[in-house]
Write a sequence for this structure.
């Protein structure tokens, strides 16, 4: 009954739901994108979710990171998020990891994971995640947002990655702009892509960068190519 | 003609899709300058979907896509 409104969808069904409950997903970053993604994946019935985040809750998070309350300020995001999600869906196995993902610990922190979801806020960690997933051929869903603009990508070994588009040269300036209503749109597409990959649906984002413009409400797929200059391809 | 596709904040006060006569520009950098974009602000430049440098030359029929930094989480 819990999942009946989604299992009646022909593209999911009981078979898709079983795949969701068998899936082991790692969500890296429990900030703006992470809060929405974690919520969507837990409610949809992803069986195992590992949350990797080393940050504590701060006041400036509260305009968009709806998992956290005023009384959570200074507390570990991972701890609060695990409790929040557990109350919403007790069927999901939650594993909170209070660490920052690095090249040195990526293999350990991402062990036994079927799909990685990147919700971090810095280029350095994105590249670590990108390289790990391409090398191990683990599906990776990437998303980023700034103000009213965001993108979502799906990456695998045989498809263009962040290095293929030169993303490692991205220089982020100052404080990132963020409003929950726009972050939620980008994050929901990111979460949906994860669900579609797990269930085995078509029309995935591999080979494309989905550009989401919440200013004029346009959304478009930009086809990407593998680059000879990519260190991973 | 060269097709120019601007994304995210590069669209502010500019067109999303524009066309420039290929005789007017030699490199992607010429396009960036034409639109008054600071080259330092270009995070990603794709020519026909391929990662490219602003110093790479462009030819008639190319599609040039320019992206500012988007990296928040
Ligand atoms: Zn690559």
């Amino acid at each position: 009954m819990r999942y009946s409104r989604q299992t009646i969808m022909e593209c999911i069904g009981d078979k898709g739901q079983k795949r969701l409950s068998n899936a082991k997903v790692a969500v890296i970053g429990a900030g703006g994108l992470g809060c929405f993604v974690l919520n969507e994946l837990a409610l949809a019935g992803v069986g195992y979710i590992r949350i990797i985040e080393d940050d504590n809750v701060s006041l400036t998070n509260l305009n968009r990171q709806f998992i956290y309350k005023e009384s959570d300020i200074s507390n570990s995001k991972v701890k609060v998020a695990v409790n929040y999600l557990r109350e919403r869906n007790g069927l999901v196995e939650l594993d909170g990891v209070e660490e920052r993902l690095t090249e040195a610990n990526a293999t350990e922190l991402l062990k036994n994971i079927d799909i990685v979801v990147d919700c971090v806020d810095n280029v350095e960690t994105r590249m670590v995640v990108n390289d790990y997933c391409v090398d191990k051929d683990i599906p990776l869903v990437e998303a980023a947002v700034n103000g009213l603009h965001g993108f979502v990508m799906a990456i695998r070994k045989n498809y263009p990655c962040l290095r293929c588009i030169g993303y490692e040269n991205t220089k982020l300036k100052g404080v990132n702009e963020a409003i929950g209503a726009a972050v939620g749109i980008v994050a929901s597409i990111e979460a949906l892509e994860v669900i579609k990959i797990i269930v085995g649906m078509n029309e995935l984002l591999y080979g494309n960068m989905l550009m989401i413009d919440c200013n004029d409400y346009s959304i478009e797929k930009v086809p990407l190519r593998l680059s000879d200059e990519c260190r991973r391809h | 003609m060269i097709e120019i596709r601007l994304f995210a904040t590069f669209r502010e006060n500019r067109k999303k899709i524009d066309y420039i006569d290929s005789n007017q520009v030699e490199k992607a950098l010429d396009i960036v300058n034409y639109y008054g974009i600071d080259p330092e602000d270009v995070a990603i430049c794709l020519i026909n979907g391929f990662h490219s440098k602003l110093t790479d030359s462009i030819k008639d029929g190319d599609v040039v896509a320019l992206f500012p930094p988007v990296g928040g989480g």
